[in-house]
Amino acid sequence: MSETAGTPELAVVVPVKNEADNILTLVGEIHAALSGVTNFEIVYVDDGSTDATPQRLAEAKARFPMLSWVRHRFSCGQSQAIATAVRHAKAPIIAMLDGDGQNDPADIPAMLARWKAEPDATRDKLLIAGWRANRKDTSSRRWASKAANAIRAWALKDNTPDTGCGSKLFSRALFLDLPRFDHMHRYLPALTIRAGGKVESVVVNHRPRGAGSSNYSNLRRALVGVPDLLGVMWLMRRSRNPVVEPGQ
Q1: Domains of the chain, residue spans
Q2: pTM, to two decimals
Q3: Which of 15, 49, 61, 118 is found 20 to 30 A from 197 (Cα to Cα)?
Q4: Share above pLDDT 70 across residues of the chain, in percent, rounded to a whole number
């Protein structure tokens, strides 16, 4: 199928902040992974970058017409950047990637196929979550992530071994129905379950960062994680999912 003809079926959304040196490589990899698989679009959100990210996005747009991008005038955080990207997407299915190049776009076709294999009645509330079984990060980051995932699994019962993985696939309608708050992207599995949905984890490739440096430290993640976890625990306890039956 052509990646430009007709309404796209799939949108690959990528939030970025100061990732100028990773833009062209990642967009090219997304194009290579999905060309001939489905009609797709690529939606980037520049979250207030102070480097050459806007210029690199303009260059990428000239080479890859299925790319569109918008910019936050000032940084609003990764979760808001994802939400902006999803709202700007035209496709009903969303694949999410981090902008640092560590998530592999080549995993998207298999994730899409698994999502489509779900029955129509439950597909729109299915979240396919990537699982970085062989992480290419520093030992301190791997241990911090392992501890955070264990705490989240215990507190939220989200049945997800790697909630922090940026590779995820879900319906646009599901995402737009979820509560939004800063850092909510780290809790998408729990929020999906809260909405009456289902989460399936699939092993995905993980790669060393291509260029640049992370916008987060282990300490910063930990400091924001505690109030976020308590807030999501409250949301989970207060949720209700009625079984709706037709009227008489």
Answers
A1: 10-237
A2: 0.85
A3: 15
A4: 90
